[in-house]
Every structure is written in C-alpha cells, then in structure tokens.
Amino acid sequence: MKKIVIDPITRLEGHGKIAIFLNDEGEVANCYFQVPELRGFEQFCVGRPVEEMPRITTRICGVCPEAHHMASAKACDAVYHVELPPAAKKLRELLYSCFYVGDHTLHFYALGGPDFVVGPDAPAGERNILGVIGKVGLEAGKKVIELRKRAQHAVALIGGKAIHPVTSVPGGLAKPLAAEERDQIVEHTGYFLEFAKFTLGVLENVVLKNPAYVDLILSDTYTQRIYSMGTVDANNCVNFYDGHIRVVDPEGKEFVKFHPKDYLDVLAEHVEPWTYLKFPFLKRVGWKGLVDGADSGLYRATPLSRLNAADGMATPLAQEEYQRLYSTLGGKPVHHTLATHWARLVELLYAAERAAELVRDDEILDPKVRVIPTATPTEGVGCVEAPRGTLYHHYVTDAKGILKRVNLIVGTTNNHAPISLAIRQAAFGLIKRGAEITDGVLNRIEMAFRAFDPCFACATHSLPGKMPLEVEVRDPDGSLVTARKRV
Amino acid sequence: MKTALVGFGNPCHGDDGIGPAAARRIYQRLPNPENITLLELATSDFGVMEALIGYQRAVIIDALVDETADVGTLRRLELPEALEDGHLSPHTAGFGAAMALARKLGLAVPGQIALYGVVIRQPPSFSDQLSPELQARLDEIARAIAAAEFTA
Q1: Is the ipTM of this complex over 0.90?
Q2: What is the DSSP letter of B8?
Q3: Residue ranges of domains in chain B, CATH in brackets
Q4: Prediction pTM value
C-alpha cells in the first residue's frame, strides 16, 4: 500500500494533515484527516473565576476571538442567572455583526477565493490573495484593507480592543456606546453594505458565470447529503448571536430545534484513535461512521448549513441572495460543499445589513448596559454561531464562581466528521488508477476542507509563516518512493 | 522614527508566549520609549500586517519551533525570505504574502522590519507560564534584542 501525506495543509488556521493511502493498484484505499495537536484549554480554565472567561477564551484563537468572547459572556450570563438589558444585547450583536463582516471577507479573498478566482489548477505560489488581487484589481485589494480596518474599528469602539475585545462581562457590557461612536459605526456600516454587494458581484462574475466552476460546485465529488445545523431566531431566520439551534435532515425537514443549554441531549461525541479531535454527531440518529445519508448522525455547522437550517434571512437583500442561491443550485437544502463559499457571502451581506439596522436603533445608546449579578453562580451554557460553525461554551462553578468544569465545542469540531467525509470523497473521486497525482489534484482535495474554513487555533506561530506543503508517496512497506514539496 | 515593538504569540500557550514576554521585558527597560509602541499580538499574520500600518519600523519577536537548537536560542530571521515567499501559511494569508500585498497596495507599512525567532519546543498544553528553561533565558534574550535594536 502506498501512502500520500499532505502535511501541513496550506491556508488552514492551525496544523492538520491529510493522509491518503493507496492500494497496490494506485487507487485510494483510505483517507484520514488528522489533527496532531493536543489541546487542553478546558483544563487550563478550571480553578479560575468564571468572570475571567470572556477575556481568557479569546486566547484560544487569534482569528476568531470575538466568537469566544461572545459565547463566553453568554455562558457567564447563564451561570449568574442574569437577563441582559436590551441595549447590551443589541450592542453585543452589533459588535458581532461587524466582526463577521471582517472575518468572512478575509476568508473569501485570502483563503477560499484563490481557488476560484485564480483557479484550482493554477501554480500554488499564485493561489493566494496576491493572485486574487492580480485578477480582480488593486482597487479590490484596497477595499478589502479598508473594510477590515473599519470592521476592526467598530469592534474596538464597542469591545474596547480590536483584536481581543474585553467589554462583555456577566450581565452585559462594561461600557455604553457614545453617540459620536455610534455615528462612526453608522458610516462604517454603509461601507460594509457596499462592499458586500461588490463582493457578491465578484462571485457572480468570476464563479457563477463560469460554467466549469458551477459544474465543479455541483459535482458529486464535493457533495455530502448530511444533516444541517444553525441558530435561528423566532421566525426561523439565520441569527449569529442568539436563538435556538435548529437541525434539518438531509431532505431539509426539521429534525430538532433546541435551546443551546440542552445541547448534550442532542449531541454525542465519537472518538477515533488516529486523531485527538472528537467527532460530534446527532445522538438520536447515532454514529454510523464517515458516511452520509439520513441514517448517519453526521451534521455540518457552516454558513451553508446555517442557510439550510433556516427558513430565510432576516434582512431584505440577504433574503434575495438566499433565494437566488437555492434557485441556482437546484432547491433547498444544498449539500454541495463548495457552495459554502456563496453561503458565506450571503452571510456577509446579512451581517452588513444587520449591523446597519442595529446601529440605527436608538435604544443602542441607552446607558443601562449591565445588570449586576446577585444570584449564586451555578452552571450555564453560552452559544453563538462562530463564522466556522456553532460554538458552545459550558461552565460549571462552585458557589463562589470558581470554575469546576468547562466544556467547549468549537465550530470546527462540529465539522470534523463532515470535513473528513468531504476529503475522503474528494480523494476517491479525484485520484484515479494510473493517473499522475498532480499539484492540482491535491489542491482540489484540499478545496474540500477549505470550504469549511477550518480553524485549529495553532499556537505555535512561526513568522514568516513558511509552511510548505509536503507530499510523500510510500511503498506498502512504508519506505519513501517519492516526495514533493510546495513552496 | 515611529516604531512598533511586536510580541507575536499566544500568552496562554506556554513558551509560545515568549514573543509577548520578551517584547514586554524589552519595553519596560527602554530608557527612551518615546516613539516606540508595544504591541502584544496573538492574531493572524494578516492581522499583524494590519496592526503595523502607520509605523515606519517594526521589531517583531516570535516563537520558533526547532528541535535541532537549544530552547531559548535567538535567531535573526531574514525578511527578504519572507517577502519573496508568496506562499500562504496556516495562519490565513501568511506574513510574507500579507506584507507583499500591503506594499503592492501602497499601504504605510514599515520600511524596516527586524524579525526575531526564539527557539521553543512545541508547547504540550495551555499554560500562562513560560517553561523554567525559557524563563531562565528571558533576560538574556531581551538584552540581546534591545542591544541590537534599541541602543544608539
């Protein structure tokens, strides 16, 4: 048996490895997606005061600290049994919407976009944000930078800091929003909205008008018919900050809708010996392995699944785009993994519209932004939709608020099984007996997981970030036959 | 010259926090900190580039996993290598690509960048403490960088 290793995966936020095993005929025998890092953040938190968690948990990841800040603050609210003042809730959601705008933008232009804008078979050195800017123009690059700057500024105005916000505390926020700060965010949201429309235009022109790309999106190689998870508001519309978790089956029918505090009744975790990361699955359906279909408890928690799990978007322009996505891709639900990129841009538009709505709500200037907790702390679950999937924080404390137990299910953990399934399916579909395994083939396999925007929060940063892609082909006895390295 | 002193890394992940720890130590001992801003950044490479806009000079300290060298070994990394490398790292766009993009777009990123890597081992788990081995060399590391970058 031969073994191909793609390690580490480029453009993945953290270390990961794809190992593809070939049989003697050169066909794929098996494929594994491994996460070699041992985490331990939960244990690190035990023994600390729970109110420190909204600041500590932002250190899990340098890419989506806002998501952890929000989920953690919500878990603290629940631990202390406090109901937020309306202004606090709206300000948190406004901060979160602005964060979403910046995060989804970076994914499209730097991570997911290069595969389409530059092309899946383009030289690896060109498949990056520079390549994207080269195709769509310098002005687009300037817009990306300006958008990110404005999004970070809005986050800093509400959250105190741009990268690791600090103002969400048990019971609300540490500071209200000043009128002049609101005025600045109003201006930013105008830019967000125009930028979101511009980016959807890029998608339209570069991807959707190219029949080869549409065929790629719709191909069986990138299709997994599994359950879809996402947070919905009272009208079953997508919401990033708050609501109930809804899961629909592969046909799109509601399977379960639950309060986040009941997540352990719905989800269970499967363990495999070849990876540290667990595989959450729907308890009631059961773990049937890495297979799709209604009898398999696998679910995805991504921009695409959030759209599938909802009945629509709560803002008008995003709703139009939502309908266009489903009418273009053959109806609801959509199970084509590469369509996640489009779903992400629908969410970008929604985040821009939602931020514009919230910042114009006069209640957002109410100085009452916190209820001081007085109840004895006990246990609480906080949940938000992180850009990469549903994020659960679950804390148990003693009567003094010292953490006794912490459980986190992060967005990418939810998607561990679907990512593994998607990679396996791509490997089986793309590697053929006797055909050369080119850089383009390997990149197309990587595209299967890149659509999920996975994040493993690698802590061992290594500027200047040189992470070549290594491919090894091994004999049945394990000896190296050939190796290739991407730089 | 407006200078950013950047500690890059996660202060909650053991020795990965050497960048922020060393940058803090250097800053505290600067005799003349005017025009020098301490930035402790646990973010993506792209985020680092964004944080550097508006500075003319940057001194960046990061952890570097290298099993072949002793823990605490200080390495001066070559920036041209980073800029010529359009490759994308696991952390979003990659610092080299991000800086190249910034220059292409005419952004006011520093013209002078000094990169330092401090050798660590892969942190086994989360901790807000440096290993005793690295902690023992923190002063030495800070002194060496300060002498090279911040003394007249």
Answers
A1: no
A2: E
A3: 3-149 (3.40.50.1450)
A4: 0.91
